[in-house]
Amino acid sequence: MNSALRQHWPWYVAGLALIALLWLLGPILMPFVIGAALAYIGDPLVDWMERRRLSRTLSVAIVF
C-alpha cells in the first residue's frame, strides 16, 4: 500500500459513504432539488416583473 492511500483512506471512505447516503436519500431530496431549480429559473422573470411595478406576490403568482 502506498503512503498516499494509507494517509488519505479515511477521506475515501467518507466520500463513498456520502455518495451512498445521497443515493439512498435521492427520492426524498428530489422534490427539494426540483423546487430549487424552479426558483432559480423563475426568479429573473419575477425580478423583471417587479421592475415593471407589479408586486412580488403577484409576479410569483403569474410565473408559477
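(the above was protein one; protein two follows)
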Amino acid sequence: MTKKPKHYTTGILAYTRIFNGISPMELSGVLHSIVSIRYTSIASPITQETMNAHVRERNIMTQEIPGSLHVANDVLADIVGNAALECYGVVGMAAPTAADGIAKILPASRLRRGVTVTTTEQGVRVELYVVIEYGTNINAVSQNLIDQVTFALTESARVPIDSVDVHVQGIKVRK
C-alpha cells in the first residue's frame, strides 16, 4: 500500500499538487482565503477535504447578485485610451482638433482627450483620435484598434457597443 503524501502549508508547490484541475485564478482565490489557516496551523497538514471546503466557500461568493452598474463616460474613455496604446502601430493619442493640420501626441496622463465617448440608445459610441506609426498598414492597425477597444469595453465594463470610429490624425516615425 502506498503512503499518501502530506501537504503542508509551506510554498505554492503543495497547493498545486492538491489543485491539479483548478485554473490559476481560482487557485489564487483559494490561496487568498487559506491565509488564516496558514498562520494558525503552520505545522499541521492540510487535507484534501479542507481544501475542497475552501473551494466551495469561494464558489458561493461568485453567485450573481441582481442590480445595475453605471460606469461614467470618463472611466470608459480611460479604458479605451489604455487599450488603444497597447495596439501595435499606435504611437499615441491626439486631440480631436488638430491645429494647422499638425497632430500633437498627448501625454499618457491625458489619454482621455483623444477619446470621445457618447451614449446612444444602442449602446456606447466611441471615437478615437490616434497617431499611427509610419510604415504600418493603416487599415490593419485601425481594425486591430477597433477589436482591442471592443474587447476591453465588453470585458472590463460589460457595456453594449454601438460603434467604434478611428480617426487617424497623423503618422509618425517611432524612435
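Reviewer note on protein two: Confidence is low (pLDDT under 50) at residues 5-20, 34-43.
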